[in-house]
């Protein structure tokens, strides 16, 4: 047996970046999704080379991205359930899972912050480019995914084990409302569309702004970004919309953290071509998490 211990390089200190850790958002490549753990506010970034994590953005220490586990899968869609379970989809890393009928991950999940993954369903069949979850009145976890090959929604009421086909909608983003899991919101090239039957049918909301990304706000409100990066919020009935501040750079992904506990405020996290930013005032000002100052 050949022993290599004497030649093994000393690992860098824990706070020292390695050559594989992005020092700038451009090193991520294109970001498909971003999520925030509801418990500790860990940031998860879905990229072409796996999922990267960063500590919550409001600490005193510099934020340094770390690869979650060793996975390098092309993570095209990602969402977090209320218990922190990560659900994702996309394509295997080059040279991995070559036995699949098609290079599609189907639905996978992680219970350790994207460090390891287990297959749930649809391996080799589906590549979800958008995923969203909500808890139904019966306590079941509803998962809604957008099949990138067909633009058809697939709906599961058993945490992704089995699926029912829904409507075909050319969506960029889909979101299931936590306050009413039968309401599904889709952003499309022709405007916002709404479903009130769990994704089986959709109707255009002609009064809504042309949103690209959308999330549930507090209660039954919506918050989203339009094609120009402007932040919009709706009233609970979605009958009135208000424009707020604008995002710096070209937005790639967004999430909203409805933290209204004592001493805290809800906040937006976005990924753009120039960095990761947070805002506690609906886009009136932005604080950099990773990337350049906005001035």
From TrEMBL:
Residues 1-22 are annotated as: Disordered. InterPro entries: Glycosyl_F510_1955-like (IPR054817), WD40/YVTN_repeat-like_dom_sf (IPR015943). NCBIfam families: glycosyl_F510_1955 (NF045728). This is Exo-alpha-sialidase. The lineage of its organism: Bacteria, Bacillati, Actinomycetota, Actinomycetes, Micrococcales.
């Amino acid at each position: 047996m050949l022993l290599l211990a004497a030649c093994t390089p000393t690992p860098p200190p824990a706070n020292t970046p390695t050559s594989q850790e992005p020092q700038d958002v451009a090193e991520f490549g294109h970001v498909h999704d971003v999520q925030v753990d509801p418990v500790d506010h860990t940031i998860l970034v879905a990229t072409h080379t796996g999922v990267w994590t960063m500590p919550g953005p409001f600490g005193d220490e510099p934020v340094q991205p770390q690869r979650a586990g060793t996975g390098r899968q092309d993570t095209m869609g990602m969402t977090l359930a209320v218990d922190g379970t990560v659900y994702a989809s996309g394509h295997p890393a080059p040279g991995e899972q070559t036995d699949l009928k098609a290079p599609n991950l189907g639905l996978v999940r992680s219970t350790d912050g994207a460090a390891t993954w287990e297959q749930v369903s649809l391996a080799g069949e589906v590549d979800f480019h958008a995923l969203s979850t909500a808890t139904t009145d019966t306590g079941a976890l509803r998962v809604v995914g957008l099949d990138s090959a067909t633009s058809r929604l697939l709906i599961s009421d058993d945490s992704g084990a089995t699926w029912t086909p829904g409507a075909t909608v050319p969506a960029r983003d889909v979101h299931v409302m936590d306050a009413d899991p039968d309401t599904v919101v889709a952003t499309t090239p022709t405007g916002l569309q709404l479903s009130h039957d769990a994704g089986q049918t959709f109707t255009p909301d002609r009064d809504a702004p042309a949103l690209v990304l959308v999330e549930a706000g507090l209660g039954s409100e919506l918050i989203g970004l339009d094609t120009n990066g402007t932040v919009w919020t709706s009233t609970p009935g979605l009958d009135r919309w208000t424009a707020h501040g604008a995002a710096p750079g070209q937005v790639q992904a967004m999430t909203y953290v409805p933290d209204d506990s004592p001493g805290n405020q809800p906040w937006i996290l976005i990924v753009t071509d120039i960095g990761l930013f947070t805002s506690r005032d609906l886009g009136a000002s932005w604080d950099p998490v990773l990337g350049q100052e906005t001035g």
